[in-house]
Amino acid sequence: xxxxxxxxxxxxxxxxxxxxxxxxxxxxxxxxxxxxxxxxxxxxxxxxxxxxxxxxxxxxxxxxxxxxxxxxxxxxxxxxxxxxxxxxxxxxxxxxxxxxxxxxx
Length: 105
Description:
The chain contains 3 helices and 4 strands. By secondary structure, it is an alpha/beta fold. The chain is globular, with a radius of gyration of 13 Å.
């Protein structure tokens, strides 16, 4: 998806993203206080949607620290509820990407 122009969004804490992230990814930290559950209360969390593309039809991929990390899943739900129509959640996240030796920065 990145090769086709999708915007990659790293939802991990800023220090993790600054240390190493997927090449070309943008850090938009998801501040999580809600339960790690599909019925999470997004009002408890903070995520700056203004840092996403203004075009709600743009392809966006969220990622974090893999299947046990819920930040990117929650971010994808919040973005979808805000009207973004092409949201993808990279469940394996940065650990999977990095373990495959794919480009990082």
